[in-house]
Design a protein that fits this description.
Layout lengths: L1 E7 L6 E4 L11 E6 L2 E14 L11 E4 L2 H28 L4 E7 L5 E7 L7 H11 L2 E6 L2 H8 L10 H4 L9 H6 L6 H4 L14 H10 L6 E4 L2 E9 L4 E8 L2 E8 L4 E2 L18 E5 L5 E6 L3 H4 L12
Parallel strand pairs: 7-8
Antiparallel strand pairs: 1-2, 1-4, 3-4, 3-5, 6-7, 9-10, 9-13, 10-11, 11-12, 14-15
Amino acid sequence: MTRIIGVRFKPTGKVYYFDPQGIEVNRGDYVIVETSRGIEYGQVMYGIKEVEDSVVTKPLKGVLRIATQEDTRKYNENKEKEKQAYKICMDKISEHGLDMKLVEVEYTFDGSKVLFYFTSDGRVDFRDLVKDLASVFKTRIELRQIGVRDESKVLGSIGVCGRNLCCSEFLGEFVPVSIKMAKEQGLSLNPTKISGACGRLMCCLKYEQDTYEELNRITPSVGTIVDTPDGKGTIAYVSLLKGKVSVKLETGDETTLREFDVNDVSVSTPEKTEENKPTEPVIHTRDTIISDDGEEKAEKPRKNRNRNRRKPQKPKEDTE
């Protein structure tokens, strides 16, 4: 087991594990930690706890200290610098005529690096832009291209449900979403109805997917022949969330549609008739002969005996 704490650097960012290194840290505290990018300022999302060794990637970076008032003041100053850097970078992008959209600017806590996040439809040659920005900020410059989902997470918006986007509110990281989920949930496959503000499939399709998979497993599909308390029929409609199925019953010359609970119907097994009756396997018998030493020897099947028998050859004529 490994003792860890969870730290988040952005309001809705991913939670990273760090080694508390003997420092008493509680949830909600702000700490200074060492990361691969350098020294960072983050908030503790959950306090010290023990997890399996397989969950963490060792060696873990450690907590340097609990953030002081001076650290908080420096962090706020960096936020003000990011606003100024955003305006400067926008002007530089216009000067170079680059086809890119600046999304966010981020200062590292120690000011050793400035990161510019942007989106673009294709590759962008921003080498000259980096040189201009480095001459202005006198520090390391890094430009990172992000996707449309990350852009929506940073900027935020209102979803079709009328609430703030999930990614900008509480989702720490994105989960894979496929069109198959919309099909299994019986949703319209119209892209405008199942796509979010980013233009991709809505993340909320994943929320109820496990429930729909379980309901689809225990519910017969449309067209299945089932046995009901009123007789045998064919499923015409399925309501997964209600646990109901509509069955088409044929009573004489009339066809009726009745609704049953899923637990009251069962998949009908086909009746055994002469047509679908399984045929018995054909067993080939073999002849046995007794050799001179008393052992039994099996010959080939009878039906193949004539086929494999060699034809007698005509004697050759003597030419001499």
